[in-house]
Amino acid sequence: MTRTVGFIGLGQMGSRMAARLPGLKRKTRSLLCVAMMIALNRQHELRIHVGTALNNGATADEIREVLLQSIIYCGLPAGLEGFRVAEEVLSARNML
User: Model confidence over 3-42: pLDDT tens digits?
Assistant: First the structure.
């Protein structure tokens, strides 16, 4: 448990990824972050993580699937807000 808590720091997670240690791929991590930002109702951070997910190879369709799941598990208001934020990011990148 103590080791896990130690990995929470962004610096340690970044260095872990840079060292190519086994774990989740960047795209998967980014999609998980999108889901967590929706669940936590953090629209500003969601905007950042949608962009990061796209930079890490996620497609608009994959992000849409995460958003659909968020409606089921996080509730309709949070999921719809997630769609609104993702639409802004995708529109800015001419991906809609």
Answer: 555 555 555 566 665 666 678 999 999 999 999 999 999 9
Kindly list the domain boundaries of the chain, sorted by start residue.
24-92
DSSP-assigned letters across all residues of the chain: -HHHHHTTSHHHHHHHHHTT-SS--HHHHHHHHHHHHHHTT-HHHHHHHHHHHHHTT--HHHHHHHHHHHHHHH-HHHHHHHHHHHHHHHHHTT--
State which fold the 24-92 domain adopts: AhpD-like (1.20.1290)
Token representation of residue 11: 């610096």
* Structure tokens, 63: 């992000």
Joined tokens for residue 34: 């999108």
Q: How many CA atoms lie within 13 A of 4 on its CB side?
A: 1
Residues 6+ apart with CB under 8 A from 50: 34, 63, 85, 86, 89, 90
